[in-house]
Design a protein that fits this description.
Elements: H1 2-7, H2 11-25, H3 32-54, H4 57-64, H5 67-92, H6 100-108, H7 115-123, H8 128-153, H9 162-181, H10 183-191, H11 194-218, H12 221-224, H13 227-254, H14 259-269, H15 274-284, H16 287-319
Length: 327
């Protein structure tokens, strides 16, 4: 029963699926579409402002000194994953619906998650301070590296341009830096209202998902997507995650990292951020493409949570981490 509970989707995943279904049935059209787009721009800016305000400089200083660990996470996130994604796109694009193979590549170019990387590292008894630093640095770097790598790897007619990088800087990086600079005044207020900030995070993502899947329905994506495409996506997600988990584990042991450091490397290096990926996609790609682009990310997000939940408990037995009630 405990194992089955790990496989049950969390409430946010259920909300994502429900939002996608609602958008497919009742998409935003006409005058509602540009209004929704403006609301999304504001919600994304607020999301990253609050993330900047939450980021502790003390955590950065504590984790930043472990540079070898951070290089391992960086290599997995922005070298190993992109290579795998480029191979997957090259060999699968002729077999999948338009945009889906590109979505697999986009997934592989995204930064690591912050919240789940740190949470799983903590559950497993790993180096939490280093995980905080690595995951946070990955997200900040990803704001610039993801569009740069996307522009490098994909065809120019797909819609990514260096002008989009400027939009990302204005809509994501500037609010993030502003939030962090204002942390001395707003940090404690934000920390005391984690439920509210969590609603902002999830609300912004749900808005983008609603807009993206509404546009996908209008453009006829679901008529182009076969059942076989979904099966292939699930298999590819499992293979990608398995390869990265195995590689980061073996590399950590080969380079002599402690078990606590190995935990941080494995969980930070194997994750891809839905929270960053959906907003960045809404800026990088035309609205008609976003649904297909983020579909692989949504599937991978759920699979990584399920697999890493089981893996964290296995690591906890090795590290001697005492489980906290409710974990």
């Amino acid at each position: 029963m405990a194992f089955l509970s790990l496989l049950r989707p969390d409430r946010f995943t259920i909300a994502l699926v429900a939002t996608a279904v609602a958008a497919t049935i009742l998409p935003a059209t006409g005058a509602a579409a540009p209004i929704l787009k403006m609301v999304i721009v504001g919600s994304i800016a607020l999301l990253f402002f609050l993330q900047g305000a939450r980021l502790s400089r003390q955590a950065i200083v504590q984790g930043a000194i472990h540079w070898r660990l951070h290089l391992m996470v960086f290599a997995a996130t922005f070298i190993l994953f992109p290579i795998l994604g480029l191979l997957a796109k090259t060999y699968l694009q002729s077999y999948l619906a338009p945009g889906i193979a590109l979505g697999i590549l986009y997934l592989c170019l995204l930064p690591s998650t912050i919240q789940s990387s740190i949470t799983f590292t903590s559950i497993a008894g790993g180096n939490v301070a280093a995980a905080v630093c690595s995951a946070s640095a990955s997200n900040v770097l990803g704001v610039l590296l993801t569009p740069l790598l996307m522009g490098l790897f994909m065809q120019t007619q797909a819609g990514v341009s260096f002008g989009a990088i400027g939009e990302i800087v204005l809509q994501i990086l500037v609010p993030f830096l502003l939030g962090h600079l204002l942390r001395p005044w707003f940090g404690s207020w934000v920390e005391k209202r984690r439920r509210l900030t969590g609603l902002v995070d999830r609300g912004a993502i749900l808005l983008v998902v609603y807009y993206a899947f509404g546009e996908a329905a209008v453009e006829g994506l679901w008529h182009q997507l076969a059942a076989g495409d979904m099966i292939v996506l699930v298999l590819i997600s499992c293979v990608l995650l398995g390869l990265v988990l195995a590689t980061t584990t073996m590399a950590s042991r080969l380079f002599g990292f402690s078990i606590r450091d190995e935990v941080a490397i494995v969980f930070c290096g194997s994750k891809k951020s839905l929270g960053s990926g959906v907003p960045i996609a809404s800026i990088l790609f035309p609205a008609s493409m976003i649904g297909a682009i983020i579909l692989p990310l949504m599937l991978f997000h759920q699979i990584q949570l399920l697999v890493c939940a089981v893996l964290a408990r296995a690591y906890a037995e090795r590290t001697g981490r005492e489980p906290v009630p409710g974990e």
